[in-house]
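Exercise 4. Each item below gives a protein and its sequence. For each, produce the structure-token representation.

Item: Flagellar basal-body rod protein FlgC (Marichromatium purpuratum 984).
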Amino acid sequence: MSTLFSVFNTSASALTAQSVRLNTVASNLANANTAASSPEETYKSKQVLFQTLLDRSDPTGAARPVRVADIVDSTAEPIPNYEPNHPQANDEGYVFRPAISVVEEMANMMSASRSYEANVEVMNTSRQLLQRTLRIGQS
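Answer:
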């Protein structure tokens, strides 16, 4: 029975991790078109790094909870745009924008959303199996 409960633990940890991933993607999308007057001030896109954990309470080793190991900044160079009339343009007339691909971020968001939905389904199915198991004892 503890294996069944470890499924809830694993799915719950994945839900938390995917929630962080969705929030990070939202932050990247919200800042995709921000401008800065220097490369150092430019927003850097963020990526979430996951890490699986060994669940010592699961004797089969099947349950592998996941956690957010780190959120790292992109190393991509900002994109300089010549916009001399922009209020944040530097002395040469350039503003710097983050190197964020909206298409990649949207794909990342869809992937995180689908992973989140899949883990919700795992939890619902496990709950239904547990309820059906309890009903067997009532008959």
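Check: Residues 2-138 form one domain.
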